[in-house]
Design goal:
single chain; 15 helices; 69% helix; 345 residues; mainly alpha
């Protein structure tokens, strides 16, 4: 008897992303995308390349939150705090510990996973908007804690910490922005592949089973508290790594850079890209990275109103997110029936 109430192929919100890409057209599309991604550093200016790098970094954080919200059904408004934790672990280790930038990433991942896992256990008693408010309180408190006098010798207080952007090693003829883009691209690809494998495996199926019906999942042998805490920890790990890479890319961290809107923007990226999708993280990250800049160019006096207008328009046109819209269009083009709305799709 299966330990889950459905088979992997029946897992809602997972099958489309987890289906093996065996089609020659898909293989060709992935190959073309990889070539284009590797060619970007030599086709864009350093500033535009920096924006693309930050989009990839943001996509890692959005993917981490989507694992928790879209796949497990736990609503969090506090991932900005985890992003800040990852950034400050890297900054403090580089500034006070003399660590190389790359050596801080596994430490940041471990610290954020431990914090998320431990926070996930007491959070098990909360659900829905209660959990959202608890995590939102964490996001509100984090900037103030980073400014506290007890931590100021380590965090730099309101002045923050200035870092050195890494240069290309081995005499490679690459600028700092080109080298950092290639590093972030490799890390993002690795983390997306790991997420794809994890979410189509035992833990992923258990995570989705809990989202759909926790009582039935527990009756079928799923350890609901452990899986929920583990999912929170893995989600925190992804967001913390994104924070570390963000600190390295911007070469600066300060408490005011991690306000409550960071958490809100992560959630916006999840919803715009598509709940319960992996590829949607890239679209959501691009939305929250580029649309505010476009809104600022349209109106210097009310950029937030323009951004809100874009967001409302997206919700009307793509109620299931960008990936959900693409799936619906492809099914209609193939002559299939329109897909039924599913939670987390």
């Amino acid at each position: 008897m299966s330990a889950l109430p459905f088979s992997p192929d029946q897992a809602p919100g997972l099958a489309a992303d987890a289906a093996p890409a065996r089609s020659p057209w898909r293989i060709a599309a992935f190959a073309l995308l990889a070539v284009a991604a590797l060619a970007l550093p030599f086709a864009l200016s350093d500033y535009r390349l920096f924006l693309v790098t930050m989009t990839l970094i943001t996509a890692i954080g959005v993917l981490g939150l989507n694992m928790l919200v879209g796949y497990n059904g736990q609503l969090s408004l506090g991932h900005g705090a985890l992003y800040a934790l990852g950034a400050y672990v890297t900054a403090v280790l580089m500034e006070h510990g003399g660590f190389a930038w790359w050596a801080t990433l596994p430490v940041s991942a471990a610290v954020c996973f431990g914090f998320g896992f431990l926070f996930g256990w007491p959070a098990l008693r909360l659900k829905g908007h209660y959990l959202a408010l608890a995590t939102f309180a964490l996001a509100l408190a984090t900037p103030q804690l980073l400014k506290h006098k007890a931590l100021e010798p380590w965090t730099g207080g309101v002045q923050g910490i200035v870092l050195m952007k890494p240069e290309a090693p081995f005499g490679l003829q690459l600028s700092a922005d080109q080298w950092l883009y290639l590093v972030v691209l490799a890390i993002a690809a690795l983390m997306f592949v790991c997420a794809w494998n994890m979410l189509r495996g035992r833990l992923g199926r258990a995570t989705i089973a809990i989202r759909e019906q926790p009582t039935a999942a527990a009756a079928m042998g799923v350890n609901v508290p452990r899986v929920k805490a583990m999912t929170f920890g893995i989600s925190a790990l992804y967001t913390g790594v994104a924070g570390s890479l963000g600190a390295i890319a911007t070469a600066f961290v300060a408490p005011d850079s991690f306000g409550m809107f960071v958490s809100v923007f992560f959630l916006v990226g999840v919803v715009v890209g598509g709940l319960g999708t992996i590829s949607g993280a890239l679209v959501g990250a691009a939305f929250i990275q580029f649309i505010p800049n476009i809104a600022d160019q349209i109106s210097k006096s009310a950029p937030s109103a323009i951004f809100a207008g874009f967001l409302i328009l997206c919700m009307f046109l793509m109620p299931q997110g960008f990936v959900g819209l693409v799936r619906s269009v492809l099914r209609r083009l193939r002559g299939g029936a329109a897909p039924r709305p599913r939670r987390g799709d």
